[in-house]
Amino acid sequence: MLLKTFGWSFAVTALGLVAAVLYGGWTAFGIAAMLSILEISLSFDNAVVNAGILKRMNAFWQRVFLTVGILIAVFAMRLVFPVVIVAVSARLGPIEAVDLALTDQDRYQELVTDAHPAIAAFGGMFLLMIFLDFVFEEREHKWLAWIERPLAKLGKVDMLSACVVLIVLLITSMTFATHAHLHAGPADKAETVLLSGVAGLITYLVVGGLSGYFEDRLEEEEERGHEAEEEAGRAGKRQSPVLLAGKAAFFMFLYLEVLDASFSFDGVIGAFALTNDIVLMALGLGIGAMYVRSLTVYLVRQGTLDDYVYLEHGAHYAIGALAVILLVTIQYEINEIVTGLIGVVLIAASFWSSVRRNRASAARPSRTPHSPNSGEVLPHPEHTGETSR
Fold this sequence. Notes:
By secondary structure, this protein is mainly α. The chain has one domain (2-361). It is built from twelve helices and no strands. It has helices at 2-54, 59-90, 94-103, 105-135, 145-154, 160-174, 190-235, 241-271, 278-302, 304-307, 311-328, 336-367. The radius of gyration is 23 Å and the shape is globular. The two termini are 42 Å apart.
């Protein structure tokens, strides 16, 4: 199971590190290896969130996620994206931008630094919407009940997430953006941050809305299909489940790619702390992206999210933290290690809470063998402070 899921990641690691040695010797090997570790540590929460979406797709779309998706992740985000942001910010053509990245790496890094306020605003708004939509939704399991219970009640207000995000964007544009960190010193980038933040919000609403629409249609069709499956099959009118899965899965796949792009912002920007060489960046971050993809599929096939019910909560709290960090980095520099550790700590805490819940759930029936209600199904203890009704 492990080799089947991570086989491609192991192969890409070997090829990528060999290519790094051939390209720049053992120094390049070390840089590529460190970049891989950086990407994995910063994107572990990405894998957990991806798994929550990917488990609703069929095996075909899971394979697409690991093949076509990884090509998009590596080439579009880890190689093309750094070049594109330089080209747009410096008003250069793609070929000129590539030439600049290969021949004048110091100038290239300066342009990327100047583009960071726009990148942070776009990614921050997109990720903040994901976090808010999660905490504003009523859920069966609550990890931090003292936070999640009142927020779920507030979430009954329509479009509350979008309103909160726009308020945060407005505050950010009037505070951090007025002294944005650029290579030549602080500068007012309020207009840039506003436009980029709105673009991030629109992207989330469009992609998330399309995926949600087709997902709802798929669920409705599946419910009707279960009721009339035999009759529809005899009449030859049975709709293909592959087609239905394809409609829904296509937009969920698109959503996953945009989500991956938003998670990749900190990894791509953080890579410049280690190297300005886009070849080494593509190799190192590409290897890390492969492991994130494989880890996502592993979590789905092992059913880890079902066994550890708070893991998804921890990942979304990590997303919220990353969104805030991205907005703060418009003005202040924050070490990427801090960003990665926050995500790891939150996910580790949610994992441990899930383990404690599972242990308590397994031990509870044995403690009350003579309970008069022993024939009833006991609710799972969640350590949320909720009382049984």
